[in-house]
Amino acid sequence: MAKIHVFCSRPGLIRGGFSNPRHAEYDFGHHTQDQLRDLVNEPETTVVIGDEVTEAWIAENEAKAKKAAK
């Protein structure tokens, strides 16, 4: 399941209602919309939505690449 990842270039910076480490992973619903806006509008933070890369994901993409190469 996708998560919200917050990357902070200045660990300890308080934005979105939290003291932010260099990287933190959150479930959807953890932040309010206003907290997310605060994080997105802060130049010292980057907010990314993504899925965890697993061995199964790698194998699936390798198989797709091999099929496409044929």
Helix/strand/pairing category: alpha+beta
**First and last CA, distance:** 31 Å
Order of helices and strands: EEEEHEH
* Approximate shape: elongated
Low-confidence parts, pLDDT < 50 over ≥5 residues?
none
Strand fraction: 25-35%
**Could you describe the largest sheet, including whether it forms a barrel?**
3 strands, antiparallel
- Helix tally equals 2
**Main sheet: strand order:** 4-1-5
Average residue pLDDT: 93
Radius of gyration: 16 Å
Classify the helix fraction into a percent range. Answer: 25-40%
How many strands in all?
5
Oligomer kind: single chain
Overview of the molecule:
With 70 residues, the protein is α+β, with helices and mostly antiparallel strands. Helices cover 33% and strands 29% of the residues. It contains two helices and five strands. The strands form two sheets. A three-stranded antiparallel β-sheet has the order 4-1-5, covered by helices on one side. The protein has a two-stranded antiparallel sheet with strand order 2-3.
